Amino acid sequence: MLYRQTQTKLAQITQELQNVGLWGGCTPSDESMASTAPFACDLMPFEQWLQFIFIPRMQALIDAEHPLPSQIAIAPMAEHLWSEQAALAPLIAVLNELDILLNEPR
Length: 106
Fold this sequence. Notes:
Elements: H1 2-19, H2 30-33, H3 46-63, H4 75-82, H5 89-103
Helix pairs in contact: 1-3, 1-5, 4-5
């Protein structure tokens, strides 16, 4: 059930990124992908981190039926970056929903 709900939220995040034109076609450099900074914020925009690191890693956990993170806080970063952009409110809302889902006691 949690895997299915998480996969639904990942699909919604993807759709929202596409809706607002933040879904990119070019994969970041290997250097950017290897960043160890939170959200790879030193080498790529947050939306690229979502697309090229977060979503694929979460999908890999789901596909392998590995445990999903139980403490996650992605929405605060989105709010910090995008709170002034009304068009991104639905994306921030879905990220918040994912945070709530994964932080619920299991």
